[in-house]
Amino acid sequence: MRTAGAFLGLALGLLLLGPFTEAGEAPSASIEIVASKRAFTPETLTLLQGEPVMLIIRNDDEDLHAFVPLLLLQHTNVQVSGNGAPEFNETGFVRVLIPPRGRTELRFTPKTTGVFPYICDLPGHNMRAQIVVK
Predict the structure, then answer these.
(1) Regarding beta strands 79-82 and 53-59, do their DSSP bridges make them parallel or antiparallel, or are they unpaired?
(2) In terms of residue numbers, what domain contains 95?
(3) Which positions ≥6 away from 4 have C-beta within 8 Å?
(4) What CATH code is carried by the domain that includes residue 78?
(5) What is the per-residue pLDDT across 35-83, written as a single tens digit (0 to 9) for each?
(6) Residue of 73, 109, 104, 107 lying closest to 89 (CA atoms)
(7) How are strands ordered across the β-sheet holding 65-69?
(8) What is the C-alpha separation between 72 and 44, in angstroms, rounded?
């Protein structure tokens, strides 16, 4: 009985911690990016350094798209959910492939200020937008 109680406590703890960011805070902003007709909308979005955020990337097309944030998420803890296929390397999050009519959520806390382009790197897509971190 004691083991069952400990297991239940651990399970509840994990459920409560699941939606939080690296700093243990709930995202202060939820921002949606839409990939449609070979373009990202919005073309520019603004985040605040040190403020947890959830980016929702939605693919409204019948084609596969990629979300590739250049340099923004290097050495940053990124929690990925949804039906996209994320890719990581030694510096961290690299990109996520989002299936047609799919959706991916990225939770992270921006560490560095600046202007960071993001692209779809699939051949012929030529999709580009930017994230400004203040």
Answers:
(1) unpaired
(2) 2-133
(3) none
(4) 2.60.40.420
(5) 999 999 999 999 999 999 999 999 999 999 999 999 999 999 999 999 9
(6) 73
(7) 44-47, 127-133, 114-120, 65-69, 92-98, 85-89
(8) 14
